[in-house]
Structures are given as structure tokens and as C-alpha cells.
Design a protein that fits this description.
The chain is an alpha/beta fold and about 170 residues long. It has helices spanning about 10-20, 25, 45-50, 65-70, 90-100, 115-125, 140-145; strands at about 1-5, 30-40, 55-60, 75-80, 85, 105-110, 135-140, 155-160. The chain has an eight-stranded mixed beta sheet with strand order 3-2-1-4-7-6-8-5.
Length: about 170
């Protein structure tokens, strides 16, 4: 089972879109819980988090480490509000955790992007290969700084932004 970490920057509507995309993974037993990370206390976001049974963390800096401290499971899926994992993501994450969980500390869902965004992403991967970004599945000890990792293993599944929140 995994914990999903969701950073909120777009608002409660984008958060609801991402949480609703996780429902099949909850039903399949892959996602156990969610932690919502927001910079300021917002009643609408708190209401969405409560309705979903998620833990709300308010922290001035939206770092994955702040949310990872509250995680109950070893594996964390990092998402931004408005992210929507695409078909096949549940199987890809489940297989990665069960088959490669001891060899790797990080995997990444693919993002469909234009050529300029792809070049920027490749440059980031060269200069900062250990930076965690939305779409990464990481072990909690890696997020908390206790493990080392090379480049992320790329998974066959994709993640996209909901067009309303791009």
C-alpha cells in the first residue's frame, strides 16, 4: 500500500479532481491514505480533505518532507493538485513496488509534454537527478533524506494535468 502526497497550489477544485482520480486505486487496495499539503489554512481545502478522509498539513513551504513525516506507508506517490494519473497507472505502481521495491527508491510516471518542456525536463534530470517532483513514487526514507538514489526509473504509465488547471 502507498500514501499519496498532494501539494495544493490551485485550490479546492483542482484538489477534488486529483482525489477523485485516486478512487479506483483505493478500491484496488493500492492507495491507503492521502496527505494534503497546503501553504495556508483554507476552509474549502480543509472541507475537501475531510470529505476524502485525508490528513491536512499546513506548512509555509510546500515541501514533500513536511508531508512525508505524516505518511503511514513506506511508498509515497507525490502529486500536485490537478494531476490525473492515466489508465494503467495502478498496475504500473503496484508492479514496481512489488518487484523493484528493494532495488530502487524512486520511480516516475511519464508526463505528456511538448518538445520545449521535454528539453527542460531532460536538463533538470541531468543537473538535479535527485529532486523529487510531482509524478514520482518514492520511498519515505528517500524523501526524508535517509537514502540515496540515482535517476528515477521511468514507469510505463502516464500522468497529465487536468486542462482546467494547466
Amino acid at each position: 500500500m502507498i500514501t499519496v502526497l498532494i501539494r495544493v497550489t490551485q485550490g479546492p477544485e483542482a484538489l477534488a479532481v486529483t482525489l477523485s482520480a485516486l478512487v479506483p486505486a483505493v478500491a484496488d487496495g493500492l492507495v491507503a491514505d492521502a496527505i494534503i499539503l497546503t501553504a495556508t489554512r483554507d476552509e474549502a481545502i480543509a472541507g475537501v480533505a475531510e470529505a476524502a478522509g485525508a490528513t491536512l498539513v499546513v506548512a509555509p513551504v510546500l515541501s514533500w518532507q513536511d508531508a512525508a513525516e505524516r505518511a503511514r506507508h513506506r511508498w509515497l506517490l507525490c502529486l500536485e493538485d490537478g494531476d490525473v494519473p492515466q489508465e494503467g497507472w495502478i498496475r504500473a505502481l503496484d508492479r514496481f513496488v512489488s518487484v523493484n521495491g528493494e532495488r530502487y527508491s524512486r520511480a516516475r510516471l511519464r508526463r505528456r509534454q511538448g518538445p520545449l518542456a521535454a528539453i527542460r525536463a531532460a536538463a533538470r534530470a541531468l543537473w538535479a537527478p535527485t529532486i523529487i517532483r510531482a509524478g514520482d513514487l518514492v520511498r519515505r526514507d528517500f524523501v526524508q533524506g535517509g537514502a540515496k538514489s540515482g535517476p528515477a526509473m521511468h514507469l510505463s504509465a502516464t500522468i497529465e494535468r487536468d486542462p482546467a488547471f494547466s
